[in-house]
């Protein structure tokens, strides 16, 4: 039997001051005050529906750092093919990225342009940002640790991908 790791791949830039949590009061005096510390790195995630999820951090999102992320995904999923459902970000299509993906046994499946709802990682990013909202972080290291733990915990839930699985699972089974 061929082993296949597959999941969604995407980049995000969650910040320690995310405030998607809202508060309501009669006199509108209640406010959430959080230190506005920004982090320079972006998060690159692989939400594995089979295999091991991965989150990594890069200061720039260019083809070289996408290749580094692919290498980290392969390191965490050492056997079998890897299928990445991804958007059409330019660095995903770059010749260097595609060559290295081929060498690593990673295949991209690109969703149509302007259809983020087809990428199962998007609801995971949304929940991650929701969990950031009420938390106050001691510093960048604490924030990064929180992001990693939260992403990996959330990625164990298939609920983010239920619609995707129901729509596309028959096609994926054919690929195995």
TrEMBL record:
One term of GO molecular function: nucleic acid binding
Top-level taxon: Archaea
Residue span, Tc1-like transposase DDE domain: 51-137
SUPFAM superfamilies noted in UniProt: Ribonuclease H-like
InterPro entries according to UniProt: RNaseH-like_sf (IPR012337), RNaseH_sf (IPR036397), Tc1-like_DDE_dom (IPR038717), Transpos_IS630-like (IPR047655)
Pfam families: DDE_3 (PF13358)
Protein name: IS630 family transposase
Organism this protein belongs to: Natrarchaeobius chitinivorans
